[in-house]
Amino acid sequence: MVIIMLGAPGAGKGTQAERICAGYSLPHISTGDIFRANIKGGTELGKEAKSYMDRGELVPDELTVRILKDRVSQDDCASGYVLDGFPRTIPQAEALEAMLKEQGVSADHAIDVEVPDENIVRRMGGRRSCQNCGAIYHVEYAKPAKEGICDKCGGTLVIRDDDKDETVRNRLKVYHEQTQPLIDFYKGRGILKEVDGTQDPDKVFEDIRAILG
Ligand code: AP5
Ligand code: MG
Ligand code: ZN
Asked: Does residue 165 surpass a pLDDT of 90?
């Protein structure tokens, strides 16, 4: 099963993707996490990606598609995966479609997690992520058992570099210009499913489970 998570920055794509992956035994493929791991590791790819991410811009399609193809060609992706943060542009969606077609398959669901912009800026200020495993928390809505420490691995929780108010606003602008058109793209493919992302995370996941069956 190939599942695509759509939604604005901070809509809860990562939060829900974690749950889907745990519940359906699928690998979680987040291009943002791959870029952040490369930044942390000081790779050339990381250096290039960082220059875009710090401004809230998208990393160029050619590079992003190459990274994605490389990741999903690994063995753990053989029977499907959850894409979180990819595709983000029409050319990326077309590249994914062509790649899947070569394998004789197509994406099963594109789940749009809908949250209005007003809610987003507030959410992002409180997000904390595990430096070690990438698990997602919120100082108000998804607290860890011990402040500043990851429940899953004991790693340190940090604020993401691109969660500054100004960068969040640019990420939202870029989302509306370049990523929102994917909603119509997947509507046209007949696989778009919409969920209300302003609800409690458990309720959002319940709605997603009803879609996935
Ligand atoms: P990426 O890492 O994908 O970031 P994003 O799309 O901006 O989305 P976020 O990860 O910020 O939010 P999310 O929807 O996952 O929400 P989360 O679950 O964390 O990309 C970062 C950058 O990398 C991009 O800007 C770009 O530069 C580059 N990049 C990545 N992919 C690319 C691509 N394909 N092409 C080009 N460039 C690319 O939730 C947010 C917070 O809210 C958390 O604190 C969470 O606990 C809380 N929360 C979640 N759900 C709820 C809820 N229902 N109620 C209350 N709080 C909630
Ligand atoms: Mg995310
Ligand atoms: Zn962790």
From this structure: no
C-alpha 100 to ligand 3 mean position (Å): 32
**Percentage of the residues of the chain whose pLDDT score is greater than 90:** 94
Atom of ligand 1 at shortest range from CA of 60: 36
CA of 100 to the centre of ligand 2 (A): 23
Show the tokens assigned to 176. Answer: 């509306």
Q: Residue whose CA is closest, atom 6 of ligand 1?
A: 9
Looking at domain 2-116+162-212, which of 3.30.450.40, 3.40.50.300, 3.40.50.2000, 2.30.42.10 is its CATH number? 3.40.50.300
**What pLDDT score was predicted for residue 121?**
86
d(CA 182, CA 37): 26
Contacts of 95 (CB under 8 A, 6+ apart): 61, 65, 69, 87
Q: How confident is the model at residue 164 (pLDDT cuts 50, 70, 90)?
A: confident
Model confidence, pTM: 0.95
Domain residue limits, the chain: 2-116+162-212
